[in-house]
Design brief:
Layout: H1 2-14, E1 23-24, H2 26-33, H3 37-49, E2 53-56, E3 60-63, H4 74-81, H5 86-111, H6 114-132, H7 136-153, H8 157-160, H9 163-175, H10 185-199, H11 203-224
Antiparallel strand pairs: 1-3, 2-3
Helix pairs in contact: 1-3, 2-3, 4-9, 5-7, 5-9, 5-10, 5-11, 6-7, 6-10, 7-9, 10-11
Length: 226
């Protein structure tokens, strides 16, 4: 039950329907969603963990300043991408990818295990196959997995933790149609070449190729979400 409350209240806060400083009363939320106080409190606890709200006795649940929100929380990213501020969010997150993923790919060229190298090769081939078939759902699955492996193979645990963030960005672009109707063949080729560079332990090539992928994603946004 608290998931239902969360799925409505969270996006409402993220979209600005309840701006910072708004005080939400537990009893009012109970009535609005037709649930018990316990269910409301469970949903509020999740929102507190994301730093969207804070609860105080005799005050209620107050929406926090946006600067205090956990901007890396996958659920918050999903909610913001579903709102009116989608374009700015996508650009901000893609710029983050551009700063991190090329470095991660370069590190992966030196740190990836043989199994990770094989996995990247297989995933790149599956991306190529689903791209030719214009199967966006399958392409997304393989694309997310590819970028997760690169981040994990970097050997940097902080980069690896960004896997969920990148997954939400890629999923959001597909779900909200902020990408071309078929995967860009050039982008697919770049993923294949990243896998080859990592397998060949060519750090410079891996970094440069991944940067091309991220810059290409920014160019897509210029066209589809200006």
């Amino acid at each position: 039950m608290h998931s239902r409350v969360l799925s409505e209240l969270g996006p409402a806060i993220a979209s600005g329907e309840y701006p910072p400083g708004t005080v939400l009363r537990i009893d009012e939320l109970e009535s609005r969603y037709g649930v018990s106080r316990t269910v409301v409190r469970e949903a509020v606890r999740v929102l507190e963990s994301m730093h969207l709200v804070e609860s105080r006795r005799r005050v209620g649940v107050t929406v926090r300043r946006t600067e205090e929100w956990n901007a890396f929380d996958p659920a918050l990213i999903r909610w913001r991408l579903a709102g009116a501020d989608r374009s700015r969010q996508l650009r901000s997150l893609t710029m983050l990818r551009t700063a991190v993923e090329p470095v991660a790919a370069g590190l992966a060229a030196g740190a990836a295990t043989p199994e990770q190298c094989r996995e990247l090769t297989v995933l790149a081939a599956e991306m190529a196959a689903s791209g030719r078939a214009a199967d966006l759902a399958a392409y997304l699955v393989h694309d997310i997995a590819f970028h997760r492996v690169v981040l994990e193979a970097s050997g940097n645990e902080m980069f690896a933790r960004l896997g969920d963030v990148v997954a939400e960005v890629l999923a959001g672009r597909t779900e909200h149609h902020v990408m071309f109707t078929a995967p860009d063949p050039e982008a697919v080729t770049l993923h294949v070449r990243v896998a080859e560079a990592v397998r060949a332990h060519d750090a410079r090539a891996a970094e440069d190729l991944m940067r091309e992928i991220c810059v290409g994603a920014l160019r897509e946004l210029d066209i589809l979400a200006p």
